[in-house]
Design a protein that fits this description.
alpha/beta, Arc Repressor Mutant, subunit A, D-Maltodextrin-Binding Protein, domain 2, six-stranded mixed beta sheet, rod-shaped
């Protein structure tokens, strides 16, 4: 017996189906009349009819049958309608996502801050932003200014709150706040004359804060004899408590109150720094603006 070849229908690709045409089909399924469906989409009945006729032509199947004076969807097009609903729903979801992305509601923000900014000054701003924008992937790095500046220049961070750097080439820098740097004497010792201050436990050499402190101490006539260093204010304060030496800390990290008669030796300016040639990141822009505000 000779073998008979079985001829299957050739699959024709459904090309150039537009989201608008599929939206017309969904609207007709959801409303009693073509005029109601057209009104729901803010188009004319004529435009709706023409769009559906073109959809029928591209699919190659009749979508409607006439019942009296009305055009009704055929039962056989249930698969087409289900597909149209999925595409229209996904497109609407994408539209909402794009709108949120444009307004900073989604995306990722990589933020660097020195400890004083993260813990004492800008904690509420970060909490408020995360509450307002829960879909944003917010990532925080707490480190000294020098490390954050390196990460910013490498592109590992979108923005950083750091001590005002000397070199700002390639950066957009905006002031955020000013901190007072105050003397912390060991064992509640009286401050007295600058010539009696020291020895010192200070931030490491090379840091911008150390530079500001040394300059201010020398200007007051104090000798700068450094016996220990640490990036961590809590460690410096504890070494002072143990009597190892004097230190200078931001007021918020000194353990002193504004009413305690502290001695202010200098100020440091914290700035918001971002790469000048940065790609668009609406979420980062929103967070940066919240800090500036």
């Amino acid at each position: 017996m000779a073998n008979r070849e079985r001829h299957l229908p050739t699959e024709a690709p459904l090309v150039n189906l537009t989201v608008q045409q599929l939206a017309y089909l969904v609207a007709v399924a959801d409303h009693e009349t073509f005029s109601e469906a057209a009104a729901s989409l803010s188009v004319t009945t004529s435009a709706l009819s023409q769009g559906l006729a073109e959809l029928e032509r591209r699919i190659g199947l009749p979508l409607f049958e006439r019942q009296g004076r009305r055009q009704m969807l055929r039962d056989e097009v249930a698969e087409v309608l289900a597909y149209a609903k999925r595409v229209v729903a996904d497109t609407r979801d994408l539209g909402r996502w794009v709108a949120a992305a444009k307004h900073g509601g989604v995306g990722r923000v990589r933020v660097g801050m020195i400890d004083a900014a993260a813990v004492h000054h800008l904690h509420d701003a970060m909490t408020s932003f995360r509450d307002r924008q829960p879909e944003v992937d917010f990532r925080l790095v707490v480190a000294p200014s020098g490390e954050l500046l390196d990460q910013l220049r490498r592109g590992d961070l979108d923005l950083a709150v750091i001590v005002d750097p000397v070199a700002t080439e390639g950066l957009d820098v905006v002031p955020v706040l000013t901190e007072e740097l105050v003397i912390v004497a060991p064992n509640d010792q009286a401050i007295g004359s600058p010539k009696t201050w020291g020895p010192w436990v200070l931030f490491p050499r090379g840091s911008r804060t150390r530079e500001l402190i040394e300059r201010a101490l020398v200007a007051r006539g104090a000798a700068v004899d450094v016996v220990a260093e640490s990036h961590q204010p809590d460690v410096l304060r504890e070494m002072t408590r143990l009597g190892m030496g004097w230190t200078v800390l931001p007021l918020a990290q000194s353990g002193q109150s504004e009413q305690s008669g502290q001695v202010v030796v200098a100020e440091r300016h914290l700035v918001l720094a971002r790469p000048s040639a940065r790609s668009a990141n609406p979420a980062a822009d929103q967070f940066a603006q919240s800090l500036i505000d």
